[in-house]
Task: inverse folding
């Protein structure tokens, strides 16, 4: 009887060890799979992320420059056109090109002002 | 792309109780040629309709037609534009920059307008002009011109030479300048003037003023126009509304011209402009004229419109 208890205990211990080994194997495989994935995940997107980051920075810089030019153009539009009349609404680009050339002669707008105003009113 | 732009207006004056209807159309054609040339011409079609005693309604003569200017501009470089043909005389600022009915704040002409601009407001000859940044804080603009004698009505002009120069400070929106002209015929007299424009950046306020003096007479006008956009209620209406006031005075010279007042005159005017749309403006103003010939009330009502048409296909270049 005691031998049966000892045998049952030994089988139970073996099963426990087996289940423990299987469980550890699952954990190990999970860790190994999750451990390699982050590594590959870190390595794989590294180059595109860097490229994307620099492209974003350049785009953001371009946007900032464009925005600054537009704001400066608007300021000069209001300053120069408003000297004599109410600043008009925007017209199609080629209409504005002729109008601005006319105003450059009539109101003696500087070359720089003309370019910035034209950029603003045609955007 | 060539453009047909300009303005049209229907102006009603009541001077001393006498009504005068004044429809006017002023087309302006702009033809850019290449990247440096521009042909521009402006014409005026107008008539005066008045009441005739014993007849009902308003009656007028033939439509007056006039080519105000027709000029070719060559933009030589950033500093200089060369203009030849018939051009508005750049004496003072009103004739060249504020004359169109859709631009001016008050529909009546300043009393001193005829001084220094020639018999038909224009010159026939050549002009060099331009504007450039002379300093980081201000721009300089200039115009020098020569006009030949022309006796062909209505494109007549006198023989004279002159110039105008101004300084514009963009940061405070202030412009000051002066004009000079030397006659090359008859009395060979000189004329000079000064102009001043200021738009305080913090306020929707326009202040303009001119002074002119010649053998024909002298005088000044000063005008303030305030847009009521800062009133916190009914903003949609008030931001379209502008109140205007102008004071002017004219003193007869020793050789007065027909276009000028025959006696010393002083005028106070108050006006109200309402901008219905971009380019469409309704105006009304009241003025009191004081002169040695008698005082009079002057009422003006006007509806003006600025138009723009393309003479070709539109699109981005």
Result:
């Amino acid at each position: 009887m005691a031998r049966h208890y000892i045998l049952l205990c030994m089988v139970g211990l073996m099963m426990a060890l087996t289940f423990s080994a299987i469980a550890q194997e699952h954990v190990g495989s999970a860790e190994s799979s999750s451990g390699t994935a982050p590594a590959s995940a870190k390595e794989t997107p590294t180059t595109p992320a860097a490229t994307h980051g620099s492209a974003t920075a350049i785009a953001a810089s371009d946007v900032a420059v464009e925005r600054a030019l537009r704001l400066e153009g608007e300021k000069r539009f209001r300053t120069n056109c408003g000297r004599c009349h109410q600043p008009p609404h925007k017209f199609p680009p080629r209409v504005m090109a002729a109008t601005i050339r006319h105003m450059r002669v009539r109101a003696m707008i500087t070359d720089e002002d003309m370019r910035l105003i034209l950029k603003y009113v045609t955007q | 792309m060539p453009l047909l732009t300009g303005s049209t207006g229907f102006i009603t004056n009541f001077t001393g109780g006498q009504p005068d209807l004044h429809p006017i159309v002023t087309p302006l054609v702009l033809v850019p040629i290449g990247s440096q040339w521009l042909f521009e011409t402006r014409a005026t079609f107008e008539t005066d309709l008045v009441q005739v005693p014993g007849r009902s309604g308003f009656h007028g003569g033939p439509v007056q037609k006039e080519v105000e200017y027709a000029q070719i501009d060559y933009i030589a470089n950033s500093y200089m534009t060369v203009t030849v043909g018939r051009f508005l005389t750049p004496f003072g600022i009103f004739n060249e920059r504020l004359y169109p009915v859709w631009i001016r704040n008050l529909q009546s002409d300043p009393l001193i307008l005829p001084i220094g601009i020639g018999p038909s407001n224009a010159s026939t000859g050549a002009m060099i002009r331009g504007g450039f940044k002379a300093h980081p804080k201000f721009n300089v603009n200039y115009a020098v011109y020569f006009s030949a004698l022309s006796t062909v009505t209505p494109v007549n002009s006198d023989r004279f030479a002159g110039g105008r120069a101004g300084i514009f400070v963009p940061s405070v929106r202030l412009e000051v300048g002066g004009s000079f002209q030397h006659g090359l015929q008859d009395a060979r007299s000189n004329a000079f003037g000064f102009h001043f424009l200021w738009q305080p950046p913090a306020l929707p306020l326009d202040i303009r003023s001119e002074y002119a003096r010649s053998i024909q007479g002298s005088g000044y006008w000063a005008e303030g126009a305030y847009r009521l956009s800062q009133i916190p209620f009914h903003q949609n209406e008030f931001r379209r509304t502008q109140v205007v006031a102008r004071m002017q005075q004219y003193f007869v010279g020793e050789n007065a011209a027909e276009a000028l007042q025959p006696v010393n005159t002083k005028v106070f005017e108050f006006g109200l402009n309402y901008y219905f749309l971009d380019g469409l403006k309704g105006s009304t103003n009241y003025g009191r004229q004081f002169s040695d010939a008698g005082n009079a009330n002057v009422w003006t009502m006007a509806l003006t419109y600025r138009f723009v048409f393309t003479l070709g296909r539109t699109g981005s270049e």
Observations:
- Chain B has a mean pLDDT of 91.
